[in-house]
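Task: encode each sequence below as structure tokens.

Item 1
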Amino acid sequence: MKLLPAGTLAATLAGAVGALAFGSVPALGSGEDPKPGQCTAAEVAELRAAGDNFADVCFLPGQELAGIEGFDVALDPGQVDRSNNLRLVANLPLTGAFKGEGAYGTDLAFKGDYAFAGNYEGFTVYNIEKPWKPKRVAQVVCPGSQNDISVYRDLLVLSVDSSRSNPTCRNESQSASEKSSWEGIRVFDISKPWQPRFLRSVETACGSHTHTLAPSKNGRDLFVYASSYSPSEDQPDCQPPHDFISVVRVPIAHGERAKLVGEPVLFPDGGNPGGVYSSDTSGCHDITAYPAKDLAAGACMGDGILMDISDRAHPRVIHRVTDEVNFSFWHSATFNNAGTKVVFTDELGGGAMPTCNPVVGAARGADGIYDIVDRQLVFRSYYKMPRTQSLTENCVAHNGSLIPVQGKDIMVQAWYQGGTSVWDFTDSANPVEIAHFDRGAVSDTELVLGGSWSSYWYNGYIYSSDITRGLEVFAMDDKRVASAKKVRMSRFNAQSQPSYNG
């Protein structure tokens, strides 16, 4: 594939990581702030424009990687390493408007025989009736990173967390310091998946980095929890302290009537103020709802939270945890099917750094497994995919989903250039990997953003949205997940977990 040339995001990331690797950031526990000039103002702006948390490589505490160059890596660029029970069966590369630099593939959602893949430039619809032979049936150009995506019945929702000139799909990038700029969610009609139709946009404070769907109990409305963070005094629509989320109500039969209905405060005390290692909380990165259990778990920068969502319009925090030693940035969450555990991910380095190596260790940039005991989160252990990655591979815990195995807690998860890992956390204190698929670095000379953004199980197969390679489909041949292949879902959004009992 084509590498990004110098002067682009790749070079910015490489420069930032190079500075980190050679000690321009204070050692862990030093109490010092990152030194000025680690990233220039232009580099910070470029990383922020790229979306996700990439600019955090410049600011997050605890990013010391001195000595990172002193380890061996087994794979050459492009070389594949996989377990015998996980095989690639299909790949559809990014194409058309999504083939250029900066048109990164993001999240996935599913409905019937269709997969919907977000992209910084819009979204793609795939027919996956034959998972081993997926077909591209629609591409919607609608710029606005990161276009986090979800579906419910005939509605599709997109998150926009980059400041735009207007709320339509015909927009341009525009400074967030301009009051007229827009960020928020977009709603589409997908009653004809091959012909999506724009319905409505709703502006939300600080935009919508991600969002979560929580259908009402009467089946009439879809509540959308829009998560965003990092306010700034020079942004009129994203003012500090931003300790809330935005709640948008979308009438299921009339998506064009979507509107903002609330901004519930989750952190009345301001949340985690941050420290030597952990981030300060100014909003949430991601929320996963488990509507059948009236629960949600929020990954909120410096905090992990458990919420009661029995009143969909008014989610309420019932417990909060922090990890000042090993969690730098609380990124996402996954429940087990019983609703008795939550797996939180730590996106150390904002997804832009090489953190899968012995220097960073097995407890940082990893997953934290928590049992839910009397509606409180109790830490049990960490899990990190066990293969060492190179200095030019961005690798850290990222998006995954539960595999519907009755009586077991098994998860599939993306690790950017660390590939896809399948692991069992039935024993919360002793998680173990049971399958993997990994490639060597996109480049062995410079850090080029790539790898799997999301890896999800859907109706018997694993689907991966690769940042630069497009849609990939995997088959897992293992008796430990055989029962999961019998579970059929009419739709799936990883951040709105279904119960496999009905």
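Item 2
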Amino acid sequence: MLKAIQDYVKYGKFLFSKHARDEMETEEFGEIKEKEVSEAVLSGKIIESYPEDEPYPSCLIYGRTSESRPLHIVCAYGKDDGIVIIITVYQPDPGKWIDFERRKI
């Protein structure tokens, strides 16, 4: 799934949900740009999978921008429909994550 998502992002064949755009604009650690989302997805790895999500399976990707900013991106991938949707984007709070990859209990 990651390789397919990265290929779609690499060639600009993805969409942002309204929620993702709202989160990008109001991020508490500073606005997140579209370019940063692309960079983080392309350098990222899947840290959580949500195969039962509807209408498409989704996953949480952790990646870093070219400036080393950590980002979490939830992406839905519709293989049969040939679509990637960025559901939400945020800069993870280090108080809630271990190395930005595992949730603190």
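Check on item 2: Residues 34-43 form the longest helix (10 residues). The first strand starts at residue 15 and ends at 16.
End of task.
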